[in-house]
Amino acid sequence: MPKERSLDPQDWDAFRAQAHAALDQAITHLQHRGDAPVWQQTPAPVRAALQAGLPLDGTGPEVLIDRICRDFLPHDIGNTHPRFYGWVHGSGTADAILPEIFAAVMNANLGGRDHVANLVEKQVIQWCREMVDFPETAGGLVVSGTSMATVLAVKAAREKIGGLALRQTGLAGTRALVGYASVEAHSCIARAFDILGLGKVALRAIPSDADFRMDIAALEAAIAADLNAGLQPFCLIGTAGAVNVGAIDPLDRLADIAARTGMWFHVDGAFGAMGVLSPAIRPLLAGIERADSLAFDFHKWMHVTYDAGFVLVRQAEDLRHAFSERPAYLEGAERGLAAGNPWFCEYGPELSRGFRALKIWYHMARFGLTRIGEKVADNCAQAQHLAALVGDHAALDLLAPVALNIVCFRFDPGSMDAAALDALNGEIVIALQERGLAAPSTTRIRGQLAIRVNLTNHRTKLADLDALVADVLRIGGEITGG
């Protein structure tokens, strides 16, 4: 007789006690996260332990939970700390723990079929459509992040403009397709062109103006040159919140150009799209509602835990036509478990899809978009506060206009050449991180290395930014002997 084995607990009461204790430790850690260093390097013993070989025998949950709390929690990336400003990392919320528990309990696969998890994602799609004023024909998909959302959107554009035959025959022998994005656009767009076989060279990098927005005259010239060369412009990509400085392209004008030239209009709104939630910021995004597709992250400025991205397409059928495959073993039915509509596997490349939608649904319902929009506005006001602080100190230079929530500046004591100044500011950022004081990142603004402060953190207060400026000045003085 075969043995009947299960991986469930043998003692459910003991498991319940262990789970409650683990939850208490997780909440306590998050409650006091701001009292600890923003970041600290993972020590050598922890690194060594994480190189151990394959575990053939199991370990009790109490041992593993203790190890997580001792070795892992203190050495996270730091984005749950109020003074984390690096890259564009969201900070999450304490409430996020709860839907993650229930998502694990349900263990749902949202590839298709008739079950409530699909209805939850369907409601998330509806809410996102309403959020950006897309028509009722719109559809979308929860994905890992804007990078994946961009691949889906560009593929939909490729098939819509280049023809559905591309799914069978590929690009060989077809009229060369070209797309357009600002030089300030995120690298995931070029990577999407690469993944889809278009080649990075097919994405034209259009110069930006003094405010880091796409230069319309340069765009028009590039389109005209490609048409004269016999190429087919198929996709125009606007950026709503450029990764370096937060600039927003003139989306309305881009929508006009896309309509006139027959191109698909895509908007990369990874974090900036959340500006639609603030009445004060929404006018800056005029034209986003005219896009054929929009990509953004819930895990950035909406504070949902990683990972949670989204692609929204004006005509849902364009996404389905780009991806749908329904072999016999995925055939639907009028009734029973194989019923249900839509099957989300028809709208993207994945058949196995986790229940990311639950934490998004919970977060939107828990806090409401008004409150989330208020935090977006708060971060933008904090950015202006930081820019003003930079302007108050002769040793600090603001390197770019503050369009939304990103401030780029540097420490400049004077009498240093460009290379030395870059090295100095890079060292200041590393010192801030290694001392656990703050975690900004760096970028380059017109060739100059900048201390880059991104504010998508709902825990950050003005006092944190005051401390950042004081620390930059102090560390800069220590390094230069000033």
Short synopsis of the structure:
This protein has 482 residues and is of the alpha/beta class. It contains 14 helices and eleven strands. It has helices at residues 12-31, 44-49, 61-72, 97-106, 116-131, 146-162, 166-169, 187-195, 216-228, 251-261, 316-323, 356-391, 418-434, 462-480, and strands at residues 139-143, 177-182, 203-206, 232-239, 264-268, 293-297, 309-313, 396-398, 406-411, 441-445, 448-454.
Layout of helices and strands, plus pairs?
Blueprint: H1 12-31, H2 44-49, H3 61-72, H4 97-106, H5 116-131, E1 139-143, H6 146-162, H7 166-169, E2 177-182, H8 187-195, E3 203-206, H9 216-228, E4 232-239, H10 251-261, E5 264-268, E6 293-297, E7 309-313, H11 316-323, H12 356-391, E8 396-398, E9 406-411, H13 418-434, E10 441-445, E11 448-454, H14 462-480
Parallel strand pairs: 2-3, 2-4, 4-5, 5-6
Antiparallel strand pairs: 1-7, 6-7, 8-9, 9-11, 10-11
User: Radius of gyration, Cα only, in angstroms?
Assistant: 24 Å
Total count of strands = 11
What is the first-to-last residue Cα distance?
Answer: 81 Å
The CATH homologous superfamily of the largest domain is named: Type I PLP-dependent aspartate aminotransferase-like (Major domain)
Tell me the strand percentage band: 5-15%
- Average pLDDT confidence is 97
Q: Helix/strand/pairing class, anyone?
A: alpha/beta
